[in-house]
Specification:
Helix content is 32%, strand content 11%. By secondary structure, the chain is of the alpha/beta class. Strands 1-2-3-4 form a four-stranded parallel beta sheet. The chain is globular, with a radius of gyration of 17 Å. The relative contact order is 0.18.
Length: 161
């Protein structure tokens, strides 16, 4: 961040704006709740292995919605699952973010026209911040989405003034 002054190495004093400090801490520790439904879930799980090292971005998966600040929806969202997704989203603390991973969660995928049981995009259930394209998208695409979300968080202002 350009507004953080860390030039004084011996004094240990850091001068910055509160918004910049809060944004830096939030974007440096994204804790996702993984909601894998279909084949995209395999690629999402693959992105959390040591080959891709998501820990370097501060991404550490959480098992509970109450501990997470990002939910990754990966796969086909049916109307039955939409209720559960909405409930999990409501349990997450503010500020919270959503990543929609794959064609099925983005727009219904191959089921968009004749799938009577498929939601035509998870954004009809909860607000989506970042979309990941592909069927299924590679782990590198999810890493790109995390980086995009970090850019979005960096520009937010939690404290007005």
């Amino acid at each position: 961040m350009s507004s953080i002054d860390m030039t004084n190495e011996s004094g240990g004093i850091v001068v910055t704006k509160m918004n910049d400090l809060l944004n830096w801490s939030r974007l440096s520790s994204l804790w996702p709740l993984s909601f894998g439904i279909a084949c995209c879930a395999i690629e999402m799980m693959g992105s959390f292995v040591s080959t891709y090292d998501m820990d370097r971005f501060g991404v550490f998966p959480r098992p509970s919605a109450r501990q997470a600040d990002v939910i990754i929806i990966a796969g086909t969202v049916t109307f039955k699952m939409a209720e559960r997704i909405k409930r999990l989203y409501e349990q997450m603390p503010e500020p919270k973010y959503v990543i929609s991973m794959g064609s099925c969660s983005n727009c219904g995928g191959p089921y968009w026209q004749y799938g009577y049981h498929v939601v035509k995009g998870v954004d009809q259930v909860i607000p989506v911040d970042v979309y990941v394209q592909g069927c299924p998208p590679r782990p590198e695409a999810l890493i790109g989405a995390i980086l995009e979300l970090q850019k979005k968080i960096e520009g937010e202002h939690l404290i007005k003034g």
